[in-house]
Design brief:
With about 425 residues, this protein is an alpha+beta fold. It folds into three domains: about 1-100, Alpha-Beta Plaits (2-Layer Sandwich), CATH 3.30.70; about 140-235, Chitinase A, domain 3 (Roll), CATH 3.10.50; about 255-410, Trigger factor, domain 2 (Orthogonal Bundle). The chain is about 50% helix and about 20% strand. It has 13 helices and ten strands. The protein has helices at about 10-25, 40-50, 50-75, 125-135, 190, 240-245, 255-290, 295-315, 320-325, 330-360, 365-380, 385-390, 395-410, and strands at about 1-10, 80-90, 95-100, 105, 140-145, 155-160, 165-180, 200-205, 220-235, 290. Strands 5, 6, 7, 8 and 9 form a five-stranded antiparallel beta sheet that branches. Strands 1-3-2 form a three-stranded antiparallel beta sheet, with helices on one face. Strands 4-10 form a two-stranded antiparallel ribbon. α1 packs across α3. The chain is extended and about 90 Å long.
Length: about 425
């Protein structure tokens, strides 16, 4: 819900606030010829300006009024309030507060939703495909005699020129390029196919029209390339030596490997099916409920999602600037794409809170303690380390209640 309050400070209150602000600031003032707190107001204002007093007075009144509104109206804000000074000068102060509290939710049908969980099946083709990937991971890289083929690794020197002039970022030596990886612009990797060690070649190419660099997008260029070495992947045979290297318990033949891969794929598909099923029941239950979501709440959720996104990039060794440049996008465009998911997150969050309340779901301290013990065992750390990381057991309790609510929604359908 949204609560908007406009506050116009009475003249006498404003004058008193300015006097108090001056007294406070003057005690910290350093003005030649005067001890702290003893400078006349006109001298202080000449030295620091009247704005310092106005800002100090306004800051106190704005904060005092904000907490007065919360107490009087019994409001519990869920995001930072929007506080807009409408007027701030010698004559007076006017402020508008926009306070967002939890949205009201009217639950619709949230049980017996008729959603069916997808049954999973693992095909022989999928098993063979996964075995192929396993073999690829154990493939050896060896020097190859002969011409470059798709899938080979070419060790190359290259330099790019536009209108006969070398451009920034277009040069490298002994660069390892896997042919078919689509790492370079269209035509580059294809142009290397058929070349041999020691061979040189000019590749006449055109950068894509949507390329990140304004200088190069849609431009014709020439890459001068020299092949220093050609390497190939040697995929191992499914023999005794391979299974020893694989070191997978109980797996010593292709048949054993196929059974293990099938089980792993089935577990993975079951997890995907469960996640999809939960999404569908939540979506249907959310569609049945009534809720008004203020745009300010959505904006705050998007900001939070964007911060999470940037943190994940940092964990991968990328900065925000590098990602935006590489993806040829802006922060605003990324956040705009997050808007729909933000709305969905908010709907599901308050749907589950409403179900917890409606069903009177409870979690005891003993259950929370047991859950923390389980978390410690799962992650192979001590209980104290888990408590240090989560800081507040209320998060664990809320997570447990949320899972209970999801089970309620899933039941009887």
């Amino acid at each position: 819900m949204k609560k908007v309050v406009e506050y116009k400070v009475e003249k006498e209150v404003w004058e008193n606030a300015k006097d108090e602000a001056f007294t406070k600031l003057n005690k910290k003032a350093k003005i030649d010829g005067f001890r702290p707190g003893k400078a006349p107001r006109n001298i202080f204002e000449k030295h620091y300006g009247k704005q310092e007093i106005l800002y100090e007075a306004a800051d106190k009144l704005i904060n005092d009024k904000y907490f007065e509104i919360l107490t009087k109206e019994k409001l519990v804000p869920i995001i930072e309030p929007k506080i807009e000074p409408i007027k701030l000068d010698e004559e007076g102060l006017e402020v508008k507060y926009t306070i967002i509290t939890e949205p009201e939710v009217k639950l619709g049908e949230y049980k017996n939703l008729g959603v069916k969980k997808e049954k999973v099946k693992v095909t022989k083709e999928e098993v063979e495909h996964e075995i192929h990937h396993i073999l690829e991971r154990y493939a050896e890289i060896a020097t190859k005699e002969g011409k470059i083929e798709n899938g080979d690794i070419a060790i190359i020197d290259f330099e790019g020129f536009k209108d006969g002039v070398a451009f920034d970022g277009g040069k490298a030596e002994n660069y390892q390029l896997e042919i078919g990886s689509n790492t370079f612009i269209p035509g580059f990797e294809e142009g290397l196919v058929g070349m041999s060690k020691g061979e040189e070649k000019d590749l006449n190419l055109t950068f894509p029209k949507d390329y990140a660099s304004e200088e190069l997008k849609g431009k014709k260029v020439v890459f001068k390339v020299k092949v220093n070495e050609v390497k190939e992947r040697i995929v191992p045979e499914l023999d005794k030596e391979f299974f020893e290297d694989l070191a997978m318990p109980g797996v010593s033949t292709k048949e054993d490997l196929a059974k293990e891969v099938e089980l792993q794929l089935k577990d993975y598909k079951e997890m995907q099916a469960e996640n999809s099923y939960v999404d569908k029941v939540l979506e249907k239950a959310a569609t049945n409920m009534e809720i008004t979501i203020e745009e300010e709440l959505v904006d705050a959720e998007v900001e939070h999602m964007y911060s999470e996104f940037i943190e994940k990039l940092k964990m991968q060794g990328l900065t925000e600037e590098i990602y935006l440049q590489y993806a040829n996008t802006t922060k605003e465009e990324v956040m705009k794409k997050m808007h729909e998911e933000a709305v969905t997150r908010i709907k599901y969050r308050y749907l589950l809170k409403a179900v917890i309340k409606e069903e009177k779901l409870k979690v005891t301290d003993k259950q929370v303690e047991k859950e923390i013990d389980n978390m410690a065992k799962t992650y192979g750390v001590s209980k104290e380390e888990i408590l240090k990381e989560i800081k507040d057991t209320e998060y664990v309790k809320l997570d447990m209640l949320t899972k209970q609510a999801i089970e309620v929604i899933k039941a009887n359908d």
